[in-house]
Amino acid sequence: MTNFYPIFLNLEGRRAVIIGGGLIAEGKILKLLDSGAKIIVISPDATQGIRDAADRGDIEFHLRKYEAGDLEGAFLVIAATNDRVVNQEIFEEAESLGILLNAVDDPPRCSFIAPAIVERGPVTLAISTGGASPALARKLRETLADSPALDWADATGVLSRARQIIKEKQVAVDPQRWQCCMPDKLLEMAQSGREDEALEMLMDGLLGKDSSGRCSNIGECVSGGCQTRNQGSTSSSQGRGRVPQTAGD
Q: What's the pTM value of the predicted model, to 2 decimals?
């Protein structure tokens, strides 16, 4: 099985070509519209939703079959045709041009696959089984959609402001320290509209003004130091080595 590399793409203003005009294609188009992509749809037929989008000027629609050369200038292509022969032709053109291609339900002809998505405010959670079971990905999406863990999306504004301050100060803060400085109280403050108060508490913890239960060195978490945990409990990291962290967005 192919091991796909998870990634989020910036499609703002980029050319995205959809081959196919059915309900699956319509669903893909709706998500692409949110991304700001320049969408071109090619199909001998189309749903009313796709036709309406074309009438509004949201997409460019060509009422015909796929032809060689249709992918020229595209950044991304989605083949939603239910025709493996046509998918193969699209795949060969995309490969020759170095264009990202997703052929719906046709993993061998994909250079990327679309994950199941859970969205809560500005937070997007992507779920993939590597093409092994779309049904499982959907089950996980439906299960996680109501997870209380996603309540933390409500604190995005506070965390974003704190990150910007840290960047401006050019201070090195260990990634694990962020986790130690995010107790439930911080989320409660953010949800109740007390964002400034939450920000002050967070910054005090991150910059060492309030170092109770945390490592004295804000740039490196050390064994046995940081003990504050998210649920208000304490657990020592004594005896464990420091695990490398990857800072994400």
A: 0.73
